[in-house]
UniProtKB/TrEMBL annotation:
It comes from the Bacteria. The keyword Zinc does not apply. This is DoxX family protein. Keywords: Membrane, Transmembrane, Transmembrane helix. It is found in: Membrane. InterPro entries: DoxX. The chain crosses the membrane at residues 57-90, 102-121. It is a multi-pass membrane protein.
Length: 127
């Protein structure tokens, strides 16, 4: 049952990362800056926003594909830990811009990543 919960959490977080990553990588920075929650992009370079998008796309891949292909499945919890670091940065950025709603969402994403890292490094490793 826990294994299923970890797969669901990883799939959900991968979908969230993919949507956010594609948005940041391919939507122009000026358009992102006009959206609710995207105001932070005004203070960032277009290259930085695209780089974050690429990292999120890689996170989406790293949360699922290594386990599905059974090639270096240790990358799943490593990716989850990297996602935790990314979410700390995201929460800090949203706090600076007064976007409490997005801080809360990032906290949920962070909690999912911690759950995945804990489960896949601890009691439910891929074997």
């Amino acid at each position: 049952m826990m294994n299923l919960a970890l797969w669901i959490a990883a799939g959900l977080l991968a979908a969230i990362a993919l949507v956010g990553g594609v948005t940041k990588a391919f939507v122009p920075k000026q358009k992102l800056a006009r959206t609710h929650g995207g105001e932070w992009t005004e203070d960032a370079t277009a290259g930085f926003v695209r780089t974050l998008g690429a990292l999120e796309i890689l996170a989406a891949i790293g949360l699922v594909l290594p386990a599905v292909l059974d090639i270096a499945p240790i990358l799943v919890p490593v990716t989850a830990i990297c996602w935790v670091v990314l979410m700390v940065g995201a929460m800090t950025t949203h706090v600076r811009h007064g976007s409490a709603r997005f801080v809360f969402l990032n906290l949920i994403y962070l909690a999912l990543a911690v759950f995945i890292a804990w489960g896949r490094l601890g009691p439910h490793t891929f074997s």
